[in-house]
Specification:
Elements: H1 5-19, H2 28-35, H3 39-51, E1 55-58, E2 64-67, H4 76-84, H5 109-124, H6 128-132
Antiparallel strand pairs: 1-2
Helix pairs in contact: 1-2, 1-3, 1-4, 4-5
């Protein structure tokens, strides 16, 4: 499993919006400048975050984006699953894949299932607020 720039940047954008949260909408240009991420790339990430209720958008003069959920209710696992599609370490555990014909006799499947559970559990135990407060031991 490799988390793409899409997932990593989505987290950075949401943290930036949370750190600069006011009643005003924040222009994406400001977020892009602070995070040193291409504005065009951020614009491709925002629709999925908007559609899933993480942010709201206001277009036009004075427009931008605003975080809609509190940082302590935004699970990193949920955000990564939205942007990455899956966190499965192997394709046979992805929901969209057909059932593997070796599933019943695969000696490695229990290991992959355990890893999948650990990955999801780990990311589901971290919130945006944790990341903002740097509460993750490295």
């Amino acid at each position: 499993m490799m988390i793409s720039t899409r997932g990593r940047y989505a987290l950075r954008v949401l943290i930036d919006l949370a750190e600069h949260n006011t009643t005003d909408y924040i222009p994406l240009r400001d977020v892009a400048d602070r995070q040193q991420i291409s504005l065009k790339y951020i614009e491709r990430i925002m629709p999925v975050l908007t559609k899933n209720g993480y942010v709201t958008a206001l277009h036009g003069k004075g427009g931008g984006y605003r975080l809609e959920k509190s940082p302590d209710s935004c699970l990193v696992g949920d955000i990564l699953r939205l942007t990455e599609g899956t966190l499965a370490p192997v394709s046979c555990l992805e929901c969209s894949q057909p059932v593997c014909p070796m599933q019943q006799n695969c000696p490695t499947l229990p290991m992959w299932k355990k890893l999948d559970k650990m990955i999801n559990s780990f990311f589901d135990s971290i919130t945006l607020k944790d990341l903002m407060q740097k509460k993750i031991d490295g």
